[in-house]
Amino acid sequence: MTDPVRCIEFFCGIGGLHYALNIAKIRANVVEAFDVNEIANKVYLHNFKKNPSKKTIDRLTEKDIEKLDAGCWLVSPPCQPYTRGGKMQDIEDPRAKALVHLIDLLPKLSTPPKYIFVENVKNFEISQSREKLVRQLDIMDYEINECLLTPEQLGVPNHRMRYYLTARRRSNPVTKEVSDYTEKSIIHTSWPFSGSNEMQNDVPELGLFFETLPRGEEKYQVPAKYILKLHGFRLDIVRSTDRITSCVTKAYGSHHIMTSGSLVQTKQMDITEYDWNDPPSLVALGLRFLTPTEISRLHAFPVPGYQLRVPNAPYSKKEPRPFSPPTCMPHLDFPDSVTLNQRYKLLGNSLNCWVVAELLRCVLFEEDVIMS
Ligand SMILES: C[S@@+](CC[C@H](N)C(=O)[O-])C[C@H]1O[C@@H](n2cnc3c(N)ncnc32)[C@H](O)[C@@H]1O
């Protein structure tokens, strides 16, 4: 049996990619994680008992990387350079500098990693940063797969369209002078990548993801003042029988209630048609925010206490599994000192572990490093 793959988790946040490795049952160790956010690092340490390095990634040297002797890079860089809110400055945005630095370091390493996984927002696929990344990988003889996927395609009732790249270096790589990759590249939008047969997954009802909250719990109620200032704007209101929620962003829990994620209706359950021009009628619906635990479940982090009735059938190492709540350890838990708003921010910045796990299992890693 081969040794566990040594991984570096760059921009680790609360460790979404580390959880995905565990969910995918990859024989791997995260030998170093990097993030400059001290609150994220506190959560990471609490769960993985390992303190990420606070060293900024754009200052890492070849020596820093080489001494970790890693065969795999897990990379989820900041998304602001590629979003409208972040002004879409792409490679010119200082927040893209760390990713560009990693791309520039790659050819300088005596042993570049065999496996690379990258996650980012939709729009990254049309960025100069992505162009620079794939050209470098192609020159170094990596086999590249790129896709845009959202969790509901894999049976999770949440919308979160994200760009994913897997790159595996060919054995006996032949380095090229120039790359022609971008001219022939395909960004897949369904899975399996080949053919048009999108996975048919039953998406479970949201009720299975909801917590039972104590009666009169105020903590998660949407303040009436946030709702009363809206006129004619639609909110994404969900109920336990629905099967989709919108993308949770880092602004969730704040007054940005129109665009940051779904709100749960808790009163007047007979009302299913909403009058967007009558905000007091919306206040009467008893809207609440999703709890951090519910968001963690929708992002497929392993958290205790919920079970879906999905048969534990034998599965292939090359086909995505039907979604079932991850149970592997450690679970995602927050230290008491992390406030509710900080939890929302960290979760909004994070990723869907199930989508990543299935890409790691079925596309990136070779079968001999996947545990059955
Ligand atoms: C999109 S989030 C990644 C979230 C992570 N995948 C998770 O599961 O929580 C990007 C992270 O990069 C970190 N970051 C941004 N610039 C950095 C830099 N130059 N060096 C190290 N970390 C950085 C941010 O603090 C943030 O946590």
TrEMBL record:
Active-site residues are: C79
The keyword S-adenosyl-L-methionine is assigned to this record: yes
Protein name in the entry: S-adenosyl-L-methionine-dependent methyltransferase
> Which species is listed as the source?
Phycomyces blakesleeanus
Q: Which Pfam families match?
A: DNA_methylase
User: Could you list the residue ranges that cross the membrane?
Assistant: none
Q: Which InterPro entries match?
A: C5-MTase, C5_MeTfrase, SAM-dependent_MTases_sf
Q: Name one GO biological process term.
A: methylation
| Family according to the record | Belongs to the class I-like SAM-binding methyltransferase superfamily. C5-methyltransferase family.
Task: Keyword check for Lyase, yes or no.
Answer: no
